[in-house]
Design goal:
Blueprint lengths: L9 H13 L8 H30 L8 H10 L2 H31 L5 H18 L1 H14 L11 E5 L6 H8 L5 E3 L8 E8 L2 E7 L13 H13 L2 E6 L9 H14 L5 E5 L22 H14 L8
Bound molecules: guanosine-5'-diphosphate (GDP).
Length: 323
């Protein structure tokens, strides 16, 4: 989801800056001027490398307060937003400090006697290193936060979204595959080992997203731990409509009665989100009920169910609007 800059820890960052500094070159009319300019250039290259690298970290992290609610909910499980802000603040502080020190020493080296230049250069490098070392823990934390945030799934919170629920083996992934253009992709989703399957299709020139969430909406909510509940709560921000699939053939291995209880539990989890209930596998069993009927296997009824879902999406207004 996020293109986060790769972050160097303090020792690597200093290596990078000093490595570049050692390759600095300078011109001058005579030996003295060349020597002086080279000394200054080394400090400047080191300082500017540190400054621009640290600044890129600050700019590269997404503005966490502006994230759509779906992602904010997930980010809150993954990282402490308050602390992350402090770490970014520290990196920004260090960038500014490196710029100050660089400017200060470049000025002093421009005026000092030639014999004092090596000592001044060492002093400047010492000051720069100490600034970076002061934020070493912050850089470590940014490295960790980046690893955590990169696990966020590539789900577009702006697209109208259908979330499919129902017990395992009722045909959720078969349905998603049946309606999606192209092969649905599996996106990593924090706290579930199985990820989330994301499919897309177009209808009336609108791009719609359909999600299958193995492990999240396929068993009673009471059985979840806090983090799983938060992962489910994040889905509630995303879902414009839930498709709950029943398997009246019970070939999924769950009696219809248990499936109906799960339906109630899912409805309670997504208050305010319309739930369309459809009976799948009608090629096997065709119950006498008024519920929409579909077979993800043969394709029968799939378009009709999609129409029902899209009606609900449309009536909820533009996706991404505050609810
Ligand atoms: P999920 O766990 O809910 O995602 O279920 P799957 O989509 O993996 O389907 C479970 C099994 O049911 C698979 O063997 C599918 O081929 C089968 N299945 C899914 N939909 C239908 C259907 O409409 N009719 C029949 N006969 N089998 C189906």
């Amino acid at each position: 989801m996020f293109e986060l800059p790769s972050i160097l820890r303090a020792p690597e960052l200093l290596d990078k800056a000093l490595g570049r500094a050692s390759k600095a070159t300078a011109k001058g009319r005579d030996y003295e001027e060349r020597t002086r300019n080279l000394g200054i250039a080394k400090v400047q290259v080191a300082g500017h490398t540190l400054e621009s690298t640290l600044e890129a970290y600050v700019k590269g992290f997404p503005s966490l307060d502006k994230l759509p609610p779906f992602y904010r909910e997930l980010v809150d499980v993954l990282v402490d937003r308050g602390k992350l802000k402090k770490h970014l603040g520290a990196a920004g502080w260090a960038a500014g400090k490196c710029a100050d020190v660089t400017r200060d020493y470049a000025r002093r080296m421009g005026r000092a006697p030639l014999k004092d230049l090596p000592a001044l250069r060492r002093e400047a490098v010492g000051r720069l290193s100490s600034i970076v070392n002061q934020v070493s823990k912050d850089l470590d934390a940014l490295v960790e936060a980046r690893i955590a945030l990169r696990r966020l799934p590539s789900i577009d919170p702006e697209l109208p979204t259908i979330v499919v629920a129902g017990y395992p083996n009722v045909g959720k992934s078969a349905f998603v595959a049946a309606v999606s253009t192209g092969k649905p992709k599996v996106a990593e989703y924090p706290f579930t080992t199985q990820g989330v399957t994301v499919g897309h299709f177009e209808r009336d020139r609108r791009r719609i997203q359909i999600l299958d969430t193995p492990g999240l909406l396929d068993r009673p909510m009471e059985k979840r731990n806090k983090i799983e509940r938060q992962a489910v709560a994040a889905l509630a921000h995303l879902a414009d409509v839930v498709l709950f699939l029943l398997d009246p053939s019970e070939t999924c291995g769950f009696p219809l009665e248990a499936q109906m209880r799960l339906l109630e539990s899912v409805q309670a989890t997504f208050p305010g989100v319309p739930v369309v209930v459809a009976e799948n596998k009608v090629d096997l069993v065709r119950p006498e009920s008024t519920r929409p009927k579909v077979s993800a296997l043969t394709g029968e009824g799939v378009l009709e169910v999609l129409d029902l879902l899209l009606e609900k999406v449309t009536s909820r207004g533009p996706a991404g609007a505050p609810r």
